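Propose amino acids for all 243 sites.
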């Protein structure tokens, strides 16, 4: 059985006794039904992981003994920031989950003209918290010890005009060049993925104003969630750590 990996939201500063967070304790006690003496692998987002032994399991609390700090990173050499126009239903959750597994460092949810999601500010705050939990869960599954940031929701133009010293890409089915023809080396990429209905012509002109390069993935028009994951994979193969 694979040793369960659990996120501890506070930095683990020292070895020894530790009480798990409520979410982690609930997962260990109620979901996995683990017992005293079994081992778990903790990570706190600092880039390290911490093997630990369960010392006590209660109805609401789980205590462990942290055995050692192991520096281990599986982060890609490519610093990839995804700007994703919010998609409907569970598509956004799927995109966040899989893009974290593929090595994205930062995700910014965006609002564009054709964004099909309309939520009030309070519901957006709940969505952000939910999306961050999905990113953490993806890290637990895939072995990442650094948790990507889900940034506050922004307008498309506000995101595009932020200063950035890397390559800025916008997918476009009529672009002349593909990811395979991009110049090398590339260490930082800001990738824009539009909504289901695509960006408007004014928005495409705006991205060009802010020096976004248009690129295409192939001859077929992909759904927004498919386009995001395909582009991330292609970029990781070309510039990152996917072989």
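Proposal:
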């Amino acid at each position: 059985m694979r040793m369960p990996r659990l996120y501890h939201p506070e930095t683990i500063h020292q070895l020894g006794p530790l009480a798990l967070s409520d979410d982690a304790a609930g997962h260990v006690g109620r979901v996995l039904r683990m017992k005293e003496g079994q081992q778990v692998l903790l990570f706190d987002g600092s880039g390290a992981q911490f093997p630990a032994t369960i010392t006590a399991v209660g109805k609401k609390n789980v205590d462990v003994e942290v055995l050692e700090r192991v520096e281990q990173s599986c982060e890609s050499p490519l610093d990839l920031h995804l700007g994703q126009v919010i998609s409907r239903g569970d598509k956004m959750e799927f995109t966040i989950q899989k893009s974290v597994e593929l090595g994205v460092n930062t995700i910014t949810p965006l609002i564009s003209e054709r964004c099909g999601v309309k939520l009030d500010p309070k519901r957006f705050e709940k969505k952000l918290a939910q999306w961050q939990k999905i990113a953490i869960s993806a890290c637990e599954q895939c072995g990442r010890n650094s948790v990507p940031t889900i940034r506050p929701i922004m307008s498309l133009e506000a995101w595009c005009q932020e200063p950035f010293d890397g390559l800025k890409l916008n997918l476009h089915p009529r672009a002349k060049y593909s990811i395979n023809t991009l110049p090398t080396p590339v260490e930082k990429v800001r990738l824009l993925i539009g909504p289901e209905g695509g960006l408007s012509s004014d928005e495409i002109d705006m991205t060009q104003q802010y020096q976004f390069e248009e690129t295409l993935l192939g001859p077929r028009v992909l759904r927004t969630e498919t386009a995001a994951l395909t582009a991330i994979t292609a970029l990781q193969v070309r510039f990152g750590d996917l072989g």
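The first helix runs from residue 22 to 31. The mean pLDDT is 91.
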